[in-house]
Amino acid sequence: MRDVHAVSTPSMPRLAAASLAGTAIEFYDFFVYGTAAALVLRPLFFPTFSPVAGTLAAFGTFGVGFLARPLGSVLFGHIGDRRGRRPVLVVSLLLTGASTVAVGCVPSYAAIGVAAPVLLLILRFLQGLGLGGEWGGAVLLTAEHAPAGRRALWSSFPQVGPALGFVLANGVMLMLSATLSDAEFARWGWRVPFWAAGALALAGLWLRSSLTESPRFLEIDDHARVPLVEVVRHHGRLVLLTAGALAVGYAVFYAVTTWSLAYATERLGVSRTVMLMCVMGAVLVQGALIPVAALLGDRYGRRPMCLAGCVASVLWMLPMVALLASGEPLLMFLAILGALLAFVTMFSVIAAYLPELFEPRVRCTGAAVGYNLGGVLGGALTPIVATTLAERGGRVPWGVGAYLTGIALISLVCFALLPETRPVPVAAAEPVTG
Predict the structure, then answer these.
(1) Is the alpha carbon torsion for 359, 363, 365, 366 positive or negative?
(2) What is the pLDDT of residues 160-171, one digit of tens each?
(3) Which end of the chain is less packed: N or C, by CB atoms within 10 Å?
(4) pLDDT, tens only, 241-256
(5) Non-local CB neighbours of 114 within 8 Å, separated by 6+ positions
(6) How far apart are CA 429 and CA 358, in angstroms?
């Protein structure tokens, strides 16, 4: 057995803060593209398309990032299970930051023609590749340091990062949108948040430079030669169940934070400033409640929280689209907030739940692949499907509500088939084969 005391153990607040900051920065990079896709990429990179087709094409490049995330989880999961969780955090942050800065430098279609959307596609793929590794590394490093009785609480802090990253990305967009003319915003203003990603990435690297390796990784004597092969062979059913279970969280989140922006501004005539404020306010509340919901997960279990979030999603999706279609800012805010409260009930405990489902030697690969496959099932197509359904429907996009309700029902079944893990310490968790 390796010497567990080869490195000093950091305090949990310091470790949680560093993990939170890193995920916030990487998700800032990922989310700023989604906001740009909803607000500005269509006319700049797909000007020959009709308005609806151009929006679909912009959301198509957005979806490519989700398709890349499982590949990133395989690549970085292999590194995390073979070389350690810590190296994953550094390399993934560099890759995501560099590709995001590059997006801000891509000339428009008017300047270089079809090469412009092709470059967007490639860079979005690289963003997704980096983010696919980020979640597994940050969550495992925190969860494997945390005491068993407070594992959901401490591992929930990296889950706050996406909310902060979203608010930061949209806050920059909102500031630029409010202070620049439409022409200035389209010409150069939208690029500023992408360029800012470079400084944020450097700050993240500095924060993570002092992190120590996970003690659980250092205790492993027999590392898997090819973690993905072992995961597929012994945990295939578990990976598919976790992916199906998590699909609803991604679908709900990206429906209200990406599709709703395009729907409200293009179909309802709501100003982008008002809509960004509605979404940002709801996401701020969501982020603040994540540790609270995680405490409930430590007390009552991971699975009950996830089942409750799924049921809430089933019940809320149709009322949500009705409130969105009103075009009234307060009602739209309530629609988004209700959806995100259902989301946070589930995802506040996922960072503890997924690592506990997999044995330590393949945990980085198994947890990350399941998490990011859920992103493909729920996040990649949702803005595209929702845009299509809303275009074909009337003023109230009932088809979007029905689509999201269907995904929530599928996830409810998947969570029902997963075991509870709360009483099982991470270090001693038995593999759940399938």
Answers:
(1) positive
(2) 988 888 888 888
(3) N
(4) 999 999 999 999 989 9
(5) none
(6) 7
**Six token digits for residue 49:** 């398309």
End-to-end CA distance of the chain: 29
C-beta of residue 386 within 8 angstroms of C-beta of residue 102? no
Give the whole-angstrom CA distance, residue 189 versus residue 183.
9
209 Cβ contact partners less than 8 Å away, ≥ 6 residues apart: none
Q: Count the Cβ atoms, other than its own, within 10 Å of residue 1.
A: 7
Exposed e or buried b per residue across 156-189, where buried means at least 16 C-beta atoms within 10 angstroms of its C-beta:
bbbbbbbbbbbbbbbbbbbebbeebeeeebeeeb
Q: Which residues have a Cβ under 8 Å from the Cβ of 86 and sit 6 or more positions away?
A: 137, 141, 208, 211, 212, 213, 214
- Contact between residue 396 and residue 325 where contact means Cβ atoms under 8 Å apart: yes
Reduced to 3 states (helix: H, G, I; strand: E, B; else coil), residue 154 is helix
- In angstroms, the CA 217 to CA 89 distance is 15
Dihedral of CA 39/45/49/55: which sign?
negative
Answer yes or no: are the C-beta atoms of 136 and 367 closer than 8 Å.
yes
Question: How far apart are alpha carbons 90 and 96 in whole angstroms?
Answer: 10
Chain centroid, CA 271 distance in Å: 26
Scan for tokens 């979203």, then name that residue.
166
pTM (2 decimals)?
0.81
Distance CA(360)–CA(310), nearest Å, equals 28
Encode pLDDT of 76-116 as tens digits: 888 888 888 888 888 888 898 899 899 899 998 889 988 98
Taking CA atoms, 390 is separated from 50, 56, 260, 264, 397, in Å, by: 16, 12, 10, 11, 5
Helix (H, G, I), strand (E, B) or coil at 30: helix
The C-alpha atoms of residue 292 and residue 155 are separated, in whole angstroms, by: 12
- Three-state DSSP at 397 gives coil
